[in-house]
Design a protein that fits this description.
Elements: H1 5-17, H2 20-27, H3 31-45, E1 50-53, E2 56-60, H4 62-84, E3 92-99, H5 107-117, E4 121-128, H6 130-138, E5 144-150, E6 157-168, E7 180-184, H7 190-201, E8 206-211, H8 215-223, E9 229-232, E10 241-242, E11 254-261, H9 268-283
Parallel strand pairs: 3-4, 3-5, 7-8
Antiparallel strand pairs: 1-2, 5-11, 6-9, 6-10, 6-11
Helix pairs in contact: 1-2, 1-3, 1-4, 2-3, 5-9
């Protein structure tokens, strides 16, 4: 029995994204085709690979997790063999810095797609606050860094402009007679600086309710009603929701998502990665935004 490389690649993408629709977008095929490829693998093996409910992927089965390990090795060897025969192989190593909120986007899927196109490229990725990323990139500690700045900033090349919004959980109701409980990333984050500046400019009392460098931790704290936060609108997905302007909170500005190169010689692999991530950011479908309160 021989495995179909395309089916294995699709299976790995489904395992990475836990979504048939996202895997379908990555391979530019229909969701039904992706489902058929997974079914083909399951029929070959006579075993279930995924736990599904109402069309959603919940997790891998034990057999699915086992096959995934082999699938990654098979795909890596396949891609390396193909790349080695190409006349224009992209090789090298990139130290990449990204903001903490990149993990609220499809960032890992974008990286996986880049690696599948360029298997001979090595990546070292670090997430941090934008202010730290900018300074460290200027010192040459990164080959490439993405970071946020307020609109009209003078650093780097603008990849995307985004509107900032106040964000809360489904059960949170702002009470501006009380101190505003803020859920924020650590110091050095543009979202944090904008949120505090807006409240101070409007003489509204505030305090830190929850601070974490993890986007998932921040998202959970918001969803559980521990306070409110500030995010780019595209990052707001249920159970988070945008707080309406009528709630008395001050309006927020736009921010720019910017990238810059380190002081080292700019290699082709670095510029190709910058182009790939910029294209992914600008062409990604906006995340569904929950209705304003």
């Amino acid at each position: 029995m021989n495995f179909d490389i395309d089916c294995l690649r699709t299976f790995a993408l489904v395992a990475d994204t836990m979504s048939f629709s996202r895997a379908a977008e990555s391979v530019c095929r229909s969701q039904s085709t992706v489902s058929q490829q997974i079914s083909k693998l399951e029929e070959q093996l006579g075993r279930r690979l995924l736990v599904r409910r109402k069309g959603r992927v919940l997790e891998l089965t034990l057999d699915g997790a086992k096959l995934l390990q082999y699938a990654r090795r098979i795909l890596q060897i396949n891609d390396e063999a193909y790349a080695s025969m190409s006349e224009d192989v992209l090789t090298g190593f990139v130290q990449l810095g990204v903001p903490l909120d990149f993990f609220g986007r499809d960032f890992t899927t974008w990286l996986a797609r880049f690696k599948s196109l360029h298997p001979m490229v090595g990546l070292e990725i670090e997430s941090n606050q934008s202010e730290h990323l900018l300074k460290r990139c200027a010192r040459g500690e990164f080959d490439l860094a993405f970071f946020k700045q307020e609109a009209g900033g003078r650093h780097g090349t603008v990849a995307l402009s985004e509107q900032l919004v106040w964000v809360a959980g489904g059960n949170y109701a702002p009470d501006l007679q009380q101190s505003v409980p803020l859920i924020l990333f650590p110091e050095g984050c543009t979202y944090r600086r904008v949120a505090i500046s807006a409240l101070r400019a409007n003489s509204l009392p505030w305090h830190f309710s929850f601070v974490s460098p993890s986007f998932e931790c921040l998202r959970t704290a918001v969803a559980e009603g521990l306070g409110i936060t500030v995010l780019a609108r595209a990052l707001v997905t249920p159970p988070m929701r945008v707080v309406s302007h009528g709630a008395g909170l001050p309006p927020l500005p736009q921010v720019e998502l910017v990238y810059a190169y380190g002081r080292k010689n700019r290699s082709r692999v670095v510029t190709e990665l910058a182009r790939h991530l910029t294209d992914s950011l600008t062409t990604a479908n906006p995340a569904s935004v929950a209705s304003a309160a």
